[in-house]
Structures
1.
Amino acid sequence: MSKEEQHDGQPSSDEWMADLARLVNAPGYKRWQSMVAATGGCGHPVHLAGQSMIVDAGTGEILHAYTTDAEPSGHLLVACGNRRASVCPACSQTYQADTFHLIRAGLSSGKGVPETVSAHPRTFVTLTAPSFGPVHAHRDCRACRPRKRDRLCEHGRLVGCHLRHAPQDELLGQPICPDCYDYTGAVLWQAHAGGLWHRFTLALRQELAGQAGMTRRAFAQHAKVSFAKVAEYQRRGLIHFHAIIRLDGPNGPTEPPPDWAGHHLLTQAIPPAVHQAAVTTPPSSLGRWTLTWGDQLDIRPILLDPSADGLSERAVASYIAKYATKGAEASGTIDHRLSCRALPDADG
């Protein structure tokens, strides 16, 4: 069989070229091309069908009418708008660029935010999940989890791992001992992570007010706390929250906070707020669980000078934009919908 013929049910190169020639020479090709270009190269455009009209409410006159019947394929192509790079690279790039500019504007200026916002206290904070048991990890030039080679857990498995895992090793993120790992706690924590973040924001406002020697209501008359966050999946399937926290005046970014509400107050208030935040699950057959943040907490100032001991505005905006387009594929999961279908009867 030559390469010009069909192979494994796929059209041959001659058939591809013939189809392409028919498409290019079709009467509606230029319109189809313009619709494809308008999607920005979307890999999974939405095909819309129907009609719309703009009618003068006073006279009932039809000012404009549109129907997809006139389109070459009978459909209007619209970009899917999916932000996940693993689903649609083109749309995720658009989303990433939009996110970058929005975050950058909130840190420096633009989109209605004045340049003076750069002088406001700002930090980049990473909040983590607690440990639910040791998992396999990639460590540069080091063993995964070195322990005494004869030390066993209560289930008879080694408590350590002396392998040097490659970055794409399928074992990464998997428990050292599946029976020791607290899967129930991990699932519950993930399910309530959003609520735990909310509790943290409340605790931070309370802590800021307390350290300033006033009530929350009184503090709100002097300063306002603004947040922007993104979740990053770890290989173990749990998320980190990366957040920008900024102190503004009582009316937002258009006015500065008072002098006493500076970087020191903000960075000193975050750790106790993290430790105070907790969510208690509703009663169930699993009991009631109190869920908190993990021990790892990273607080870094966002500075105008990138050479100083902190993060630049551009670096932070790029970081947030990057993780805004990542899905759960980094943890080894799939990024499409699962469906259950009955298999045909083998005897049928």
2.
Amino acid sequence: LVPSGHTDVVAVEGQDWASDPLTMVEREGHLYGRGTCDMKGLVECSMATAREVASLHLTRPLHLVFTYNEEVGPSMLPALSRVWWG
């Protein structure tokens, strides 16, 4: 089991934002800002539960994979899978 999420956001140049995209704002009960969603929930949940999972004494390791640059570059997962599983 390899929970995987990315931690980056793409550049904002050329995008039409009604406010500064790097500052989260609330409008009509919704939060807006660059990176406020888009995989960040999985990253947070994975990190928050890592200690509990460690206490389970798994027979195989649990790897948490947090990558970046997936929108413009190759995914790191194929290379990591070769390292882990040959």
3.
Amino acid sequence: MSAVLELLRNREVVGKEFRSPFDSAPGGTRKHTLHDHIDQAAVDALQGKTEECLNHLAEIAAADVALARAVLDEVQAIEVPVPDDISVTWGGLREAAALLAETLGSVADIRQDTEMISHHCAQLQDSVKDLESEGGVLSLDDYKVLLRDTDEIPLIIAELQDALVGIRRRADETNVRSLQCAAFFADYVEQSQAIGGISQAIGGFLSRSESSQGEFQRLLTEVEVFQDEMWNLITWYRNFHGAYDALVGEVHRRRQAQAQQHAVVEDVRARLDVMHLEEVDRRSEFVDKFGPFLPSDLCPFIQDPPPRFIVDEIGDVERLASVQSYDTQ
């Protein structure tokens, strides 16, 4: 807009007959330009409205940016724990399951060893009963059986002790795995709560900025309307500048056409004057020669002078003549 207005300010109007808003101003020294014929106040008002809307848009954008930064600081202040890799936890669970399976196997072995001890104890009781019934005298075979059972019992007890130690070890390992899983799930819950806090902060930001977005969109629409009006004015002013060039050329063309018509009129006037004088002479000659012999009531108009024809302009022809030529700008 500034460029096209400057273009109009620098385009001086030629010819005194082009009307200027400053013709009646005292002094009359101000240069007459195309800018004198536009409504600068309307242009200033349109630019002022556009700038006002743009300032409001900038204020809304700045407020949203400040709000976004505050929410970002709030989000960054939230500590989000990072649990161990889930594969590690699932691996621990699988190992715990394997330990449980081994423990169940050990329990089966203990049950079997217990049954063996019970069996040996039953055999010992039977041997003692037989010994009592026979008067306390053991046969060689009974002695061997009793000795064998007595030797196997410590071995079975040792196996039971080993199995219990294994069960205790696996129980400790299972407890460690369970603690790891519990820690993972505790971290996961804490992480979920932290993420929930972040989501709440972002949701609050979106909710608070939603109202400003409506006003922002309304102002943006107004700016687009003002810009369309501005471009329409710019287009009109450019066409005005071009139309003025065409106007000066048209005035020059009309002046030439009028000059040609005026020349024709002057020629016709001169020829009519000559013809009129010739007619006057011929009528005078006729009247002088034959008039005395003609009664006055026979042809009264024979004494009349010839009519005079006048060719004249209709309209103000002097205005075009005073306008400067397009070629002399």
4.
Amino acid sequence: MARRGQNYLNNKDMLRQIHTSKANYSWFEDRDKHHQYDVIVNDVKEIRESIEQAKQNRADRMQKEAWELNTDKKKRQSDFLVDLDTIDKNDLVFRVMTFEHIPDEPGRKNNPKSIADHKVKLNFPPFKHYVLDGRKFKEVGISHYNKNKEFDLQGGKITAKLANMYIKLVERYSQRSNWRGYTYIDEMRGQALLQLTQIGLQFNEAKSDNPFAYYTAAVNNSFTRVLNTEKKNQGIRDDLLEKSGQMPSWTRQLEHEMKSQERWQKVIKTRITDDQIPTETIKEIYAD
């Protein structure tokens, strides 16, 4: 398998930075050993049946890492295959998605519909890391906890690389032909960056491995929101200008011209029987 060229942004690097950023907000018994999970489950009871999958995931990760560090271009990724039997199940790390360690916040939402609605608002889905300790499961990592093992929402930060990815993504997206011509493109960029800082870590690795699509959708929504707001404000401004006898914006003039052409096409296509256009047709033509 040949190495591909480096894209300006790719899912692999984004996933790595998202993982590191979430780890910055978390407590680990041994950060070097326990920050990297091998499989994600929804309950502690699912750990034992996920051991084989966790081994496979770790083997795949070790294989890719060895291949990337290799300098011999003749070797393929398959040459670095890792035997599953060499992986000790006691070394595996299991991420369990849970809210049990998150404090309650009654009344945060008027009509709570999920467990999250009863808890403190978080910047990403909470989790715990477990390892096998004989027949028991040992807790070795807790999200949203600081180094003193206390609940703390301000105890970490996103990595500088992830922040640069946000900026690069917004900048490149704003250069697309359907956005770059707007005079308020800077405001669009600002709103998109603000949105990414708020929802960037909410990407759930258990549901998808494509953060690029997730972030692009968020940027597109931010741009569209600003565009709709500006259009609404422009419409109000044009209405005031027309009422005061002034010339409205070029956009309003163009819309008026297009409507006039549509009305004239209706006149042309209307059948005239008594040398006059029926009253109903006139009402239809000039109805706004």
